[in-house]
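Might you be able to check the backbone structure tokens below? Thank you kindly.
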Amino acid sequence: MKKAVQFGAGNIGRGFLGQLFNQSGYEVVFIEVKEELIGQLNREHSYRLRIVGEKTEELIIDKVRAVDGRDKVKVAEEIREAEVMATAVGVRNLSSVASLVAEGMRQRANFKVKEPINLIICENVPNASQVFRDYLLREIEHEYRDYVDLHLGLVESVVSRMVPIIPPEIRKKDPTFIMAEEYSILPVDKKGFKGKIPEIKGMIPYENLYAYEEQKLFIHNAGHAICAYLGYLKGYRYIWQAIEDEEIRRIVRAALEESGAALIRKHGFKPEEQRAHIEDLLRRFANRALNDSIARVGRDPIRKLGPHERLIGSAKLAYQYGIIPQNIARGIAAALLFDMEEDEEARKLSQMRRKEGVDVVLKKICQIDPESHLGRLIKKNLNDK
């Protein structure tokens, strides 16, 4: 049976990639460090995945097992015999994965494995393949580098599936149980593959993945954030509550039409497909079963107000193509007012805004001129709140 090595058995590992590999005929070997997950996956060789939305579906993801990520020799043996690999471990853990992949590639070289293997990198970091390659080069000796260059594909991806947090009482009863929305498309970078591209259900190789990365950031991420920040100002707790508010829904849709129009001009997306994508996102945000919280989606506002991030970045992109980001600016203004006490970054942002003023926040965090068109537009919306 074909084997997929999946680094990370967390939300995306079990809630997305495990499903895609399983439905594509692969045995899935999870590389994990949490002992309760490792133990149960090896006892049951399966786990439950509940697809939640307009209609609920219960799936059993079988033909799975787990290997302790601290057992470098055993992980390398699994890599030696695998057809494909993927990561979903979080950016901070990529260097540890690189060490394991390096050992696996040494084994493949020593056993003279001719077939290339591809690593699909499902992490929220720019230039993920280069980041991973840099880590890998620190781990691999010079005599193996030619083999690695020819036999290891590093494939970037865009993960958009939303996976809710499992309540602690359910997780205690069944640590492997996971829920996810129905959406199951995985765009990947066609140019990253070595050898034959594996056939994986839901995986779509694109020549220009960057276009879809920007679409994820400036449509999905931006819309989610604007919904959260506007919802917070109205006292809502969940994203579904916010998007059901007619005023918020209208602003979010209009904001996404602004960034969407810019993306159409920049990347050549078809207008009707972009409109359909926006409407589908609004429907997904309204999924009550996800129970996605305002606190989770809005957290770390300082990072999300960065100069190239989802809010300021989409506003700049709109201006670049002659579009006035009226509604994106309303979302940015709401983000500047996000002062949730439990969020450390929100507290820092609130203190800076109160003590030093909005102009300083725009300069230091957003890195825009407070008297620029965008700066004045944001401040106008702040004054209107």
Observations:
- The CA atoms of residues 58 and 367 lie 47 Å apart.
- The mean pLDDT is 96.
- Residues 209-233 form the longest helix (25 residues).
- The first strand starts at residue 2 and ends at 7.
